[in-house]
Amino acid sequence: MAELETKAGSADLIGPDASLLIVEDDAPFLKRLARALEGRGFRVEAAESVAEGIAKAKANPPKYAVVDLRLADGSGLDVIETIRTKRDDSRMIVLTGYGNIATAVTAVKLGAVDYLAKPADADEVFAALTRRGDEKIDPPENPMSADRVRWEHIQRVYEMCERNVSETARRLNMHRRTLQRILAKRAPK
């Protein structure tokens, strides 16, 4: 009975069109997230690559989308852009293990409504997808560390240089190989 009430409450938040496209190349995570969001009332379609995500978005533009930023065959931002051109009322969020402010800004400019760092659970994803525009997000309990602030700055300059490693290294007065090692690592906490 509680499960039916939860689904009914979810349906109110989701609306009549519950189509959801999840684009994620981590197959176990994709399956868990798809199952969890189906349990909350979404009609889920899954894709494991940018090409597959774009094809599914063109064939049946979803009302909701959860897109990984870095996929084996390219950037999830291409999927976000495709969905936005096909359907301007969609609510999309970007998931990534390589979160930074510059790509978050780009994702929002392309039409994403939120940007979540991995590991994000189904509750966080559901809340981000169903949050209304006037709802405020609570500020983080812990501010960014000095290492994270440095990493964010490097990422911002890297994006400004259109992902040109040599130009970014020159602007940051840093050796190119040092910069490449920093860019290859995950974001510090």
From TrEMBL:
The keyword DNA-binding applies. Keywords: DNA-binding, Phosphoprotein, Transcription, Transcription regulation, Two-component regulatory system. The modification 4-aspartylphosphate is found at residue 68. Residues 19-133 form the Response regulatory domain. The keyword Phosphoprotein applies. SUPFAM superfamilies: CheY-like. InterPro entries: ActR_PrrA_rreg (IPR047772), CheY-like_superfamily (IPR011006), Sig_transdc_resp-reg_receiver (IPR001789), WalR-like (IPR039420). This is ActR/PrrA/RegA family redox response regulator transcription factor.
